């Protein structure tokens, strides 16, 4: 009578640092359905999935799989029992072929000792055909595109006879076109009897693919709904309790854009024989936001990390107004008016173990207002910190709390508060809202626009199409280390069209691209 | 009650010590004919006589200096164990100056200590430079430096400073003008103790109230973040290495001028490595290091007295130390209870 393959009852997970990731969550998954789990980043979706997959263990509550209560000690046990997971970050060996990666750990053997490579290739080929995946299994994984790597990850779970497949934010790295292909595959799996757990925070995708949808908010489940019974607006409301503003145009004040605040000329970077950046040139005027769109891994990371001084280019010059930054140290670049919101806030943006106040002053810790002759002026630091905390409504007990006790969104607000407080001429914001809740995201977008209105030049790099299109004034698209398109305005642009440029299917003529610099 | 991180750490520390003592007692039961007497001597004898308690403080001084030197490096996330070699070599520098005749008994120790400190700082710059410039693993270079300094030191002692009145590895007697005065009568506690207190205070303020200290702590917590913020790791690594070497150098000098009449370390003294233990137990905090040094000195003094009057060898103290280190450095020890307490409390501010 019970067609639930997997039931979670009263799951609570508290990490040892006191963070509550899940609180009393009960969900059941039916056999052969595509079941989406949606929620803002930090709502506890990933943790919940990790518990099903045996990577994390619930503090309280039970997991019933196929009618039996299970306690997977690790992911190996989950895999043995037919649960597979495709992580956001792929776990593969680049120097192995597709076939080798798929059979890794469960290789077919010859005489019970030797690897049987032919057999591996045959099995994986068959597997790929069976599930309508068109791919050459003898290629090395390192040479595959992101979407193909994802397919390999999925095949890996299928090779291990996964009945339940968990996909954690699978579309984050895909273009709209690739997403459609993935969805066709998922529907095919469903027909073959697999259960799909689809984790996402993109509601239109969830709506397009799911049979049932569970909404998570703040570590708790807000209920499971049949797809037909819930609209995107309702989901949004459940997730955040209010509707999202989709355009920021009304907040943009006219700026004269007279000054070319930041200019980048002919950047080239060659890494191990691969041209990572090719003739990248563009300019950002004071009082505008230039967006850089592109699928991740098309040179954006290398470009930004070089511009801020964390790594080097082979050739290229860049300027703030007329001052050349090229060979200055990071400290000198910052002094010249460069501020930077890094992509990986936990790695570059903050120091875990330090207080909120200490994290709020790092970019200008030598500044006079927070220093005495010998000692740092703790009073001044606290006043400044408290002012920033209030201005950015950072939710924290006090400025002395450890930064890691804050949620992702609030940590990011700390980073943004600090960087905007350097009174920059150019602010480079790299994925400024990735992985944070919608409330903080909106707040940060507003801050960026406020800076723009105050004649700061802003360079916004994001893999989130919505973000670049909502916030930017102008837009360039990067593909394989090159600027392939430049748009004077984002009005009238569709994500379908942008997707074509991002995928490399389309490319503007040189004249239009050159306008990225001279505009 | 275990939910608060600080309380949890304290409870963990207490539990580790308690467990270590229980284990020690079990060992004593097996090896000793009078385990109870041995145990109580080990635990309480330093409190029974003023002189014994003085021994604790005397031992605590070099351990603290070694601990401070190492803690500063560890804070910057530099895993450098070179304090050992610096302690040894700066002892030789001290011997070279302290055996010279000098008219002023105030200046003589001060000059000796300062020069030893500077020598220590310069020596530490060698692995520091390689780390800062070439990203050479400072653990490897500093351990190699220990051997090099030992060989070099032995050579200098043998060929230039060898005592004329005794055989074996030793220098001539230090001039009386160079000796540190005793500041608490009835013990051998010398003025180096005051220098230690001053150093702890200076180091504390440097770490927590200056720009240098701020950049040290941020670099230690997250090197990528420090770089991103524009901090110059090159100069920071050199500075930190110099200060650490300086602390090691003056610590060595103070120990010799306070407690010895001549240089007579025929092997590496082991104080530098114990410094790493102090740094770890003291969580790389200047005050923590001193507390750890006091605790370890207390235990060692106690076991020493115990060994003298019972059938238990002094090495028993290593068991206590080892067990404490194991439990305190273990990330998992008591974690379950910590988590359970968190669940009861319903998590912290982030819901």
Could you give a quick summary of the protein structure above?
With 519 residues, chain A is α/β, with parallel strands linked by helices. Chain A has helices at residues 45-52, 75-80, 98-103, 117-130, 146-159, 176-191, 203-209, 232-240, 300-308, 330-335, 345-349, 356-361, 378-391, 408-420, 438-453, 465-471, 495-502, 510-518, and strands at 4-14, 20-30, 34-38, 60-65, 68-70, 83-86, 109-110, 114-115, 164-168, 195-200, 212-217, 220-226, 260-271, 274-285, 289-293, 315-320, 323-324, 338-341, 426-430, 457-461, 474-479, 482-487.
Task: Give me some keywords for this one.
heterodimer; A: 519 residues; alpha/beta; Rossmann fold; 6-stranded mixed beta sheet; 18 helices; 22 strands; 33% helix; B: 351 residues; mainly alpha; ABC transporter involved in vitamin B12 uptake, BtuC; 2 domains; globular; disordered C terminus
Give the number of helices of chain A. Answer: 18
Estimate the global geometry of chain A from the Cα principal axes. globular
Q: Give me the count of strands of chain B.
A: 0
The CATH class of the largest domain in chain A turns out to be: Alpha Beta
The count of domains of chain B is 2
> What's the N-to-C terminus distance of chain B?
19 Å
Describe the structure.
The complex is a heterodimer of chains A (519) and B (351). Chain A is an alpha/beta fold and 519 residues long. Chain A has three domains: 4-240, P-loop containing nucleotide triphosphate hydrolases (Rossmann fold, 3-Layer(aba) Sandwich), CATH 3.40.50.300; 257-337 and 424-519, 3-Layer(aba) Sandwich (Rossmann fold), CATH 3.40.50; 348-423, no CATH class. Chain A contains 18 helices and 22 strands. Chain A has helices spanning 45-52, 75-80, 98-103, 117-130, 146-159, 176-191, 203-209, 232-240, 300-308, 330-335, 345-349, 356-361, 378-391, 408-420, 438-453, 465-471, 495-502, 510-518, and strands spanning 4-14, 20-30, 34-38, 60-65, 68-70, 83-86, 109-110, 114-115, 164-168, 195-200, 212-217, 220-226, 260-271, 274-285, 289-293, 315-320, 323-324, 338-341, 426-430, 457-461, 474-479, 482-487. In chain A, strand 7 (109-110) and strand 8 form a beta hairpin. In chain A, 49% of the residues are buried. Chain B has 351 residues and is mainly alpha-helical. Chain B has two domains: 1-32 and 312-351, no CATH class; 50-309, ABC transporter involved in vitamin B12 uptake, BtuC. Chain B has helices spanning 5-31, 35-48, 50-75, 83-98, 107-134, 138-161, 192-209, 211-221, 223-228, 233-259, 271-281, 286-309, 316-329, 335-345. The radius of gyration of chain B is 22 Å and the shape is globular. Chain B starts with a helix and ends in a 6-residue tail after the last helix. Residues 347-351 of chain B have low confidence and may be disordered.
